[in-house]
Structure formats: structure tokens, C-alpha cells
Amino acid sequence: MNNTQQFIQENKQRFLDELIELLKIPSVSADPAYTQDVNDAAEMVAKYLREAGADNVEVCETEGFPVVYGEKIIDASKPTVLVYGHYDVQPADPLELWESGPYEPVIKKTEIHPDGAIFARGSADDKGQMFMHVKAFEALNKTNELPCNVKFMIEGEEEVGSPSLVNFVKNNKEKLKNDVILISDTSMISNEQPSISVGLRGLSYVEVEVKGANRDMHSGVYGGAVPNPINVLATMIGKLIDEKGHITIPGFYDTITELTEDERADLARIPFDVEEYKKSIGIADIQGEEGFSTIERASIRPTLDVNGIWGGYIGEGAKTVIPSHAYAKISMRLVPGQDPEVVTQQFADYFPTLAPSSVDVKVKPHHGGKPYILPTNHPGFIAAKKALAETFEKEALAERAGGSIPIVALFEEELGTKSVLMGFGLNSDVIHSPNEHYGLFNFYKGIETIPYFYHYFNEQ
Ligand code: BES
Ligand code: MN
Ligand code: MN
After folding, report:
1. What is the pLDDT of residue 414?
2. H/E element, 349
3. Per-residue pLDDT tens over the stretch 24-63
4. 429 ligand 1 Cβ < 6 A
5. Which residues form the Peptidase M20 dimerisation domain (predicted)?
6. Closest residue CA from atom 15 of ligand 1
């Protein structure tokens, strides 16, 4: 590994310069205005993979944005690591809250990142983290120290629910055959305390519509005598969570795999300062489900959140009107044991029963995803832990991520292998928000750690 580590040290600046080129491309998968840019980002990833020395690099067409594939097979009898990541990004808006352009990467020092962090959309989620794998591979390959086979599958639709990757995986099982999948698209506890995510939450996502009268009405002439869909919707939403923080949907908790006392004790070992937490996001107090810690609420417990709500008049000044329609988007994060299709159906059955007979209610399901869990006795977890111990000189803790990467559960179903979530981001990187950034410390630590993962995984 020594030559590899030396190669990394000697090429640090170039690695960063190359990442900056990738970050300049606004590869927003959700917005058709950026179609060309998303395709350009795929081409650039392919170019970097080729330059790193990968074979059979291909920009594979799908029904949507392409999947970039590349591989290095050194010996068929050796294990194969499949690296997954995504080159698409979330929309940058609200633009006015960015201190520098989302696609004009700049390096600035912050309190958490005294060595500097790179500010740009996608810097942490996931271009910066995905790129660490390309560079770690380059270092191993160019120093002839690659200990096992490696395959890359970098997609461009993760931020819109990976619609095309499902068929790509189903149609390319042989090509994607592997012993373990390695992903850096999650966060770790802090730069002083490395961690490995051993779970991801699933997702059920719905849009609801409440319809009252056949037109908007004068709120004086009709007010008081007819349903106001916004008032009704607000009341219905209010009934979805009770005063103990429990979600009231019948059957919602029935199939959840509860944690053992040991597992809960492990989570309690994660350093956490509630005052710092409140201060960091500017809230006066925390809240959530009774009987669970903040870390548990944000990782091992399911949630229900309104993501957006609209209807009626929201222009300048006042308009006295009873709107005919009200809408909301609602997400539910799911935990192991819950099935998104079942939960979506439970919601669709229950939500309309909360409405008075004066309105019509519609529930429209969106994309969902299954939760995921990695046992800590899995060889991939053990290899990641040993790798992190090399570079941080500290024992990594297991934690469960609150976010979702829905395709990970499908990898297991279709390819039969587990994914190891060795992320190097921090929760303070503000992914999906203005001023997203990724620490240079984290970027380089990732590149230095990944070769050890290959080494230790190959040894088992
Ligand atoms: N990389 C994130 C998921 C993530 C972030 C997991 C931090 C754990 C910690 C991913 O790109 C993402 O944003 N996923 C979406 C789901 C998707 C269907 C849009 C999410 O979690 O909301
Ligand atoms: Mn991501
Ligand atoms: Mn994301």
C-alpha cells in the first residue's frame, strides 16, 4: 500500500483540480433544462475512469440518463468489489442563498474544516465522494498494487429515485457480478470519529389533494358554511401524529424489526451533544417520538413529514378567498421490516377517513424505496472497519443513516450481495441545501482509506 499512499500524496492537487472540473457541470437530473449537462457529466466520469486505467469503460444508454461502467479484472479467482455512486445532483435553488455560485467551486475554510472545504452543488452528494473511488483506484492501478478486481457503476438518476437503474441491474447481472458493493454516499460522525453506516431508511412518498367547492369563493359570502380545503387538510395532517410523536396510520408499526438492547446500547455510544445540535440548526428545542433518543429518532425510527403544502392565495397583500383545492407532499421514512408499498397503501386507506364528508380526498403515490441493513459480522463491514482504523487511528463506530438510497435494497435482491456504506461526508455538509460543501480533509481521507478496504477485503 505504500506506493499507493505515496502516489496519492504526490497527486493531491491534480485530484482536486479534476474534481473541480466535474463540479462545474450542473448535472441536475430532476430538471429537463439540464439534460445536456447530465450527459456531459457522464462523459467526464467515463473519461476520468479511462485515464485512471479502467478497462471496458462504457457510457451505457438506459431509458433515462446513462450509467457509466468500467472495470479492472486482474484475476478471476480474486474477489470483486463493485463501486456504486452517482454523478447527478439536486437542483441548486434557492439560488439567492448561495454565497458563491453552485457550479463555480471555491475552497473556503470553515470552523469544522480548518483545512478548507470545497463549496459546490454535488461536492459531498455525491460527486466528491464518488470521485474518491476513481482516484483511489487510479493510485492502486498505477502503482500495480490493486489487490482484487474492481467494477464501477456510476449512475445519473439517484436524486430522482433511480428509475432506469432498476432495469439496468436486472439486465446486466453477469456484468455486475461482485462479492461486495462499496458506496460512499452517506456521512460519518465527525472528522475525529469515523463511522460506517449499517443501515439506510426506506421511503414512501405521496401527494395528497383535498377538494372542496367547484370554484374559489368569497370568504365572507360563503365563509363559515362551506368546507375550506386548506383548513381541512391542516386538520387531517394534524391527526397523522399524536401527542406522543407516534404516527397514527393503522398497522404502520406492526412489522418493524425492533432493535435489541445491545444494538440500542451501541447507538448510545455515538457521541452526541444536544445543545450543539440545537445551536447548529437554530432551534429552541428538539421534539420527536416519546421513548427514543435524538439519534434513534433520526435513524432507526420511521417518520412522517410534510415536504410542501400549497393552495389558495399566496400573492402580495390579502385576498379574502376560500380556495377550492389544497395540496400537500408527504414523505415517510421507513425502517427495516417496513415495506414501502404496504405503507403507501396503509396511508391511502387511512388518510381519506380523516376527512369530513364535505370534501373529496385523493392520494397519489410517488417513488418509494426499501430500507436496508448490513450485519456487523459481514466481511465488508469488517474490512471497512480495519481500513478506517489505518487512516484515522481510531475504531469506527456503526451507525444507521437516516437518509435513503433506495437502489441499495434492489442490489441485494438482484445481485445477491451486500453494500458497505463507507461515507466520508459530515451532516454539516448541508447536502441538498445552499452552500453544500465537502471538506478537503474528508476528500483526501477517503482516497487514502479506500485502498485499505480493497486490501482487507481481499485478505478474507
Ligand atoms: N446521498 C443521499 C442519501 C443519504 C444522505 C443517506 C446522507 C445518508 C446520509 C442521496 O443522494 C439522497 O439524497 N437520497 C434521497 C432519496 C432519493 C429517492 C431522492 C433521500 O434520502 O431523500
Ligand atoms: Mn447521494
Ligand atoms: Mn442526494
Report:
1. 98
2. helix 340-350
3. 999 999 999 999 999 999 999 999 999 999 999 999 999 9
4. no
5. 199-356
6. 404
Question: Nearest 5 degrees, angle CA 387-CA 390-CA 394?
Answer: 100
Start and end residues for every CATH 3.40.630.10 domain found in the chain: 1-200+371-459
Q: Residue 436: CB within 6 Å of ligand 1?
A: no
Q: Which residues have CB less than 5 Å away from ligand 2 (the ion)?
A: 125-126, 185
Q: How many angstroms separate the alpha carbon of residue 363 from the centre of ligand 1?
A: 24
CA distance linking residue 458 with residue 88, whole number of Å: 31
Q: Read off the C-alpha cell for 377.
A: 459480522
Please provide the CATH number assigned to the domain covering 202-256+302-369: 3.30.70.360
Q: If pLDDT is split at 50, 70 and 90, which confidence band does 1 have?
A: confident
Contacts of 233 (CB under 8 A, 6+ apart): 208, 210, 309, 311, 326, 327, 328
Catalytic residue positions? 88, 158
Task: Give residues with Cβ within 8 angstroms of 199, minimum separation 6.
Answer: 299, 300, 335, 336, 371, 372, 373, 374, 400, 401
Domain 1-200+371-459 has CATH 3.40.630.10: yes
pLDDT of residue 460: 84
CA of 285 to the centre of ligand 1 (A): 25
- The amino acid sitting at 160 is V
Nearest ligand for residue 425 CA: 1
Which residue's CA is the closest to the ligand 1 atom numbered 6? 403
Q: Assess whether the C-beta atom of 405 lies below 6 angstroms from ligand 1.
A: yes
**From the CB of 161, is ligand 1 less than 6 Å away?**
yes
Give ranges for CATH 3.30.70.360 in the chain.
202-256+302-369
155 lines ligand 1 (CB under 6 A): no
